[in-house]
Design goal:
InterPro entries: CheY-like_superfamily, EvgA-like, NreC/VraR/RcsB-like_REC, Sig_transdc_resp-reg_C-effctor, Sig_transdc_resp-reg_receiver, Tscrpt_reg_LuxR_C, WH-like_DNA-bd_sf. The protein has 204 residues and is of the alpha/beta class. Helix content is 51%, strand content 12%. The protein has a five-stranded parallel sheet, with helices on both faces.
Length: 204
């Protein structure tokens, strides 16, 4: 299999070339700019896979990816980047890219990914592509307004109405109003009971 590594960082390019060339089944070529990569695709024997650095000279993001994907030769093209976002990776895959490789990928994983893509599969590391899970709001917190949550947290910290009012930039009468609705929602009669409910529920 023949791989073209197009990246303007000499050290990274040389390291990739060294790792991939050590594999018996892989032959590599390299380029430092998009222009050089395009020239090699046009003049050399077909590449099984082209690795394009997302930020190298000449690259105009996904537009350049599309350009190389549409070139004659039918080469598979993957993006490699140290700063592209998950959204960019998703768009690249939707456009038909062979994959997306973060530069933080360990060398062994990178070699396996390259082989995988050169054989016709699509690759992107799951931990990179997986959206961070949104933290679920606590059931008790969902029943309260943001301000009531602020007041309840202050109660668990043992603060007085005066301290809470000062911290939240409100007046003491306003804090007392929040306390009243807070007690009603929690089914309690005083601040101590409210703080105990919050702690028992694991809210704070």
């Amino acid at each position: 299999m023949k791989i073209l590594i197009a990246d303007d960082h000499d050290l990274l390019r040389d390291t990739l070339t060294a790792f991939l060339s050590a594999e018996d089944s892989l032959e590599t070529a390299s380029a430092a700019t998009l222009e050089e990569a395009v020239q090699k695709i046009q003049t050399e024997s077909p590449f099984n896979l082209v690795l394009l650095d997302y930020k190298m000279p000449g690259m105009k993001g996904l537009d350049s990816l599309r350009e190389v994907l549409n070139m004659e030769g039918g080469q598979r093209v993957a993006l490699i980047s140290g700063e592209a976002t998950r959204e960019i990776a998703e768009q690249a895959l939707e456009m038909g890219a062979a994959g997306f490789i973060p530069k933080t990928l360990p060398a062994k994983s990178l070699v396996n990914a390259v082989k995988f893509m050169a054989m016709g599969e699509q690759y992107a590391p799951l931990d990179f592509m997986k959206a961070p899970e949104e933290e679920e709001a606590h059931p008790l917190a969902q029943r309260l307004t943001p301000r009531e949550n602020d007041v309840l947290k202050a109660l668990t910290e043992g603060k007085s109405n005066k301290e809470i009012a000062r911290d939240l930039g409100l007046t003491e009468p306003t804090i007392k109003l929040h306390m009243k609705t807070l007690y009603r929602k929690l089914g309690v009669n005083n601040r101590t009971q409210a703080a105990l409910v919050a702690r028992d529920e694991g809210l704070y």
